Amino acid sequence: FLISGPYATQNFNVDPSTAGLVAGLMVLGSMFGRFVTGHLISLTSCRTVLVSGLIIYTVSMGLYLVAHTLPFLCVVRFISGVGVGSASNATGTLIADIIPASRRGLGISYFSLSTIIGLALGPFCGLFLMQHVSFETIFIFCTLAGVSSFIVLYAMRVENVVTECKLHTSLL
Predict the structure, then answer these.
(1) What secondary structure letter does DSSP report for 172?
(2) Alpha-carbon gap, residue 10 to 66, rounded angstroms
C-alpha cells in the first residue's frame, strides 16, 4: 500500500489526492475480494479460492511492470486488492478449520499475531526498499513473493483438513 502513492506521484505526476485514490483502490479491491470469496468458498473449497487469490495477486504484481497509464494502474491496484482479499479470507477460513477446537482460541490468536507482525514490519520494509531500489525492483520482489507463496502452499501437507470449509460457510 505504501509505495503506490509515491509511485503514482513520481511516474504519473498526479496530485496527492489522486495518489491517495490509487493507494486506496487496493483496499477497495480487498474488500470486494473478501465479500465475494465467502460465497465462492461455499461453492468450491478454501484451497481453490486461496490458489485463485494467489494467482490474481501474483499476476497483478507482474502487471505493475507494464502499467504505463494511470487508468491501467488503477485497474491493476484494484485487481491486486481482490487477490489479497481473496487469499487472506481463504487463509483465515482454512486456519480456523485446521486448528483443533480445543486450541482454536490460541491458534487463531497466533495467526492474528502473524498479520499484526506483517502490518508492523511492512511499512518499514517498503520504505527501506524505496530508498535503496527502484519501483520496478519492488514490483519484481512482490511478484517473487507471490510465486514463493505457491511454493509454500504446495509444500505444506496438513492431515485431516476440512478443505471444503463447510463448517463456516453455513453462516453465510
Answers:
(1) -
(2) 16
* DSSP characters over 122-168: HHHHHHHHHHHS-HHHHHHHHHHHHHHHHHHHHH---TT--TT-HHH
pLDDT, tens digit (0-9, with 9 covering 90-100), for 72-121: 999 999 999 999 999 999 999 888 888 888 998 899 999 999 889 988 99
Q: How many angstroms separate the CA atoms of 137 and 145, rounded?
A: 12
* 149/60 Cα distance (integer angstroms): 14
Q: How far apart, in whole angstroms, are the C-alpha atoms of residue 53 and residue 103?
A: 28
Give the span between the Cα atoms of 13 and 11, in whole angstroms: 6
**Other C-beta atoms lying within 10 Å of the C-beta of residue 143:** 19
Tell which residue, 54, 49, 56, has the closest CA to residue 75.
56
In the chain, the amino acid numbered 145 is A
Q: Which DSSP state fits 10?
A: H
Residue written as grid cell 527501506? 128
